[in-house]
Amino acid sequence: MLGDISKAGRIFIITGYTDMRKSIDGLMSIVAHTYEMDPYNKSLYLFCGRRSDRIKALLYESDGFVLLYKRLESGKYQWPRNKEEVRTLTRQQLRWLLEGLAIEQPKAIESVKKRIL
């Protein structure tokens, strides 16, 4: 299916600023050369420009790449800008981000890993 992000194994957010004029090849280059990751591994890579009102998502499907682009009519994404790095997001954090919330929610209940007694 075209752009079915639920098929993505992992979700990565590229913090900092990305030139939003870049298309598939330019974003692939950032993933491969800047962060030394494999853009073909069926992960979702998220990018955001300086204005913080638009994002691009790069996803490899079995027959090629899909580039998704979203521009908000009002408001801004709360994109982490601390430094240029790659961070892994959970699906919940992705949902928060797309809803205009920060990916770190201080009052959210964290999931607990099972402990063997």
Automatic annotation (TrEMBL):
NCBIfam families: IS66_TnpB
UniProt name for this protein: IS66 family insertion sequence element accessory protein TnpB
Source organism (scientific name): Ohessyouella blattaphilus
Gene: tnpB
